[in-house]
Amino acid sequence: MAAKTLTIDGKQISAFEGATLLQAAEEAGIKIPTLCHMEGVYDVSACRLCLVEVAGVSKLLPACTTRVSEGMEVTTDSERLRKYRRMILELLFAERNHVCAVCVSNGHCELQTLAWTHGMDHVRFDYRSPRWEVDNTHPRYGMDHNRCILCTRCVRACWHIEGAGTKNVSGRGVNSRIISDLNQPWGSSDTCTSCGKCVDACPTGALFSRGSSVGEMEHDRQKLEFIVTAREKKQWIA
Amino acid sequence: MNMPSRIVIDPVTRIEGHAKITIQLDDEGAVADAHFHVTEFRGFEKFCEGRPLGEMPGITARICGICPVSHLLASAKAGDQILAVTIPPAADKLRRLMNLGQIVQSHALSFFHLSAPDLLLGFDAPPATRNIFGLAAAQPDLARSGIRLRQFGQEIIELLGGEKIHPSWAVPGGVRAPLSEEGRQRIVQWLPEVRVTALTALKLFKSILKKHKAETQIFGNFPSLFMGLVAPDGSWEHHGGKLRFMDSSGNVIADQIDAANYREHIGEATEKTSYLKSPFYKPLGYPDGMYRVGPLARLNVCERIGTPVADEELAEFKSHGRGAVTSSFLYHYARLIEIIAAIERIELMMDDPDLLSNQLRADAGINKLEGVGVSEAPRGTLFHHYEVDETGLIKKVNLIIATGQNNLAMNRTVAQIARHYVRGKKILEPMLNRVEAGIRAFDPCLSCSTHAAGRMSLRIRVLGADGTVVNEITRD
């Protein structure tokens, strides 16, 4: 596989052809914030947090799905990018009902951590405060749509790691929501194997173990990466 | 002819939360009626609907920044009922330890930070210095030891729950973490100091009691019922046990009532002028079924406390009443005895190996669709009543808060004090502070505010019958 040379934040690096900017940056020790990206499943560039500037391209590009090319000059951190990332985070918080103080994932939440690290001390947009319900019908897990950011990591984990295909997205725009099977209570799903991979994939408190109390829900993302590495590379590295 | 007027104290200072007092004058300028209004609306009973049961202790703890532990524990107990489990013995002991810490820190706040400035500096001291800072200047050792006493209580909460305020530690089925050995040692180190502080404060209060004969007579001294938890043997209880009602002559009129049956004994009335509900003892109806809860009530309804110093003090305390002690001013006294009771109980617990146990949580699904949790908050008996669907989502919440149960008695107290001190439209600040202090004796907790001391302004208005302001005083 041919190597490509490019510059990320002024640092000359080389990456395999076909690698994404996110992979190349990570290889070079450059951290780009992500939310819908998850090791072990394909990327969908849904959250837009990994947007980067590429010299000669006027629009911002998502690092998770943009492939490296020869001579690319990439900037991962700038005033413009910080402004957009913070705005994205604020919009995510304004869209549904994220109340960190009483959330099962308080202290272990990727959205909360990103908001914190991006200096989001308040939200400038009006909260939409929609009315979403909690699906607590599964014997082991619950789904709180109030806390869902529609990253679809659960859907991808369900289809492509577990292979059950229980989780899907229905609706459009702000009315989109994660569903089970044919938009039915999760507990009545015929396809769900109760493996819990969707729960481990969730970056927020939207998917949780039933009975969790405030701040108690910790998602084990490494477990998913472990399974995929074991399956694809035949390496069982915990 | 004089116009009938109203005096409004808004906000009431040095209490937890936002409230105002209205004093209605008649044509002659005498007090016709007085009311304590809670002007804030929280809505927890409504917006908790639809939430999973497991989140309820953490959510309802947010009701208050002073007594989050009380809500946490009552909520967890309601959850235990819905899981239909008996929690592990270690979890019960640890919950009790946290509640004792909570009682100490809250009572210390009430006495030293909020009420001691009135009691020790005098009701007529200038408002600018009649606060914890003035107390610290006048009696630095006392103020410092009081602040440290509160710190002790809060440290117990933090050592168990990981944070001083709003720990989400008690859960349906038990608790999340034990006490560490380091934590146990830390509490043991504190005990000699806080015992001295509590005994000194009690001695001081008893020494000034004679000077406050008028307050003892006037600050809410009237017959009423009293309610609190008692152990099966009738001794002082703060977390387990069952309910007891006593009348002001000391007769037990209902005993060993299971919390689950509270609705047979307690009704809840609402008033147009306040967001605070007015619970009453059902058999006597509203408003005759007025009852008081909290330290005064707990010491009235119990026969003994079960620890040596507290029992000695309880006997002396009870000598202030015939049957029951009826003066609300003596809430302060009862609070100080309860601090000693809590410290003695904590001392007794410290060698119990169960505090370090890891068997802390009974795991179960939704086995009942309804549960009532009751616990003694510092201010009185607290009820959390939940109904859930079969998946454990909350369908209905009813909370009966200690301060609400004292609502009728607080109104009565305000009227009694006002009748004694208010004469006509002329308002003197120290007189109004006595009205406020009458409320303060109940230590009402109306919200999560921990920043009340010295921060609120006081506005007093005299309104004519047509609603126009005829006199106004503002204190910053």
Structural summary, described in words:
The complex is a heterodimer of chains A (238) and B (476). With 238 residues, chain A is of the alpha+beta class. Chain A has two domains: 3-77, Ubiquitin-like (UB roll); 84-233, Alpha-Beta Plaits. Chain A has helices at residues 21-27, 79-95, 110-117, 153-162, 197-201, 221-233, and strands at residues 3-8, 11-16, 51-54, 61-62, 73-75, 134-135, 141-144, 167-170, 177-180, 207-209. Chain B has 476 residues and is of the alpha+beta class. Chain B folds into three domains: 6-40 and 423-475, no CATH class; 86-221 and 327-363, Cytochrome-c3 Hydrogenase, chain B; 223-324, no CATH class. Helices cover 41% and strands 18% of the residues of chain B. Chain B has 15 helices and 16 strands. Chain B has helices spanning 44-47, 56-61, 68-83, 89-121, 132-138, 140-161, 181-209, 213-218, 262-265, 295-301, 308-318, 331-349, 402-405, 407-421, 429-440, and strands spanning 6-10, 19-25, 31-38, 170-171, 174-175, 225-230, 242-246, 252-257, 266-269, 278-281, 291-292, 370-377, 380-388, 394-400, 458-463, 469-475. In chain B, a hairpin with a 5-residue loop joins strand 15 (458-463) and strand 16 (469-475). In chain B, helix 5 packs across helix 6. The radius of gyration of chain B is 22 Å and the shape is globular. Residues 447-460 of chain B have low confidence and may be disordered. Chain A binds chain B through residues 101-102, 104, 133-134, 136-137, 139, 142, 144, 187, 210-216, and chain B through 50-55, 57-59, 62, 166, 168, 171-172, 176, 363, 365, 391-393.
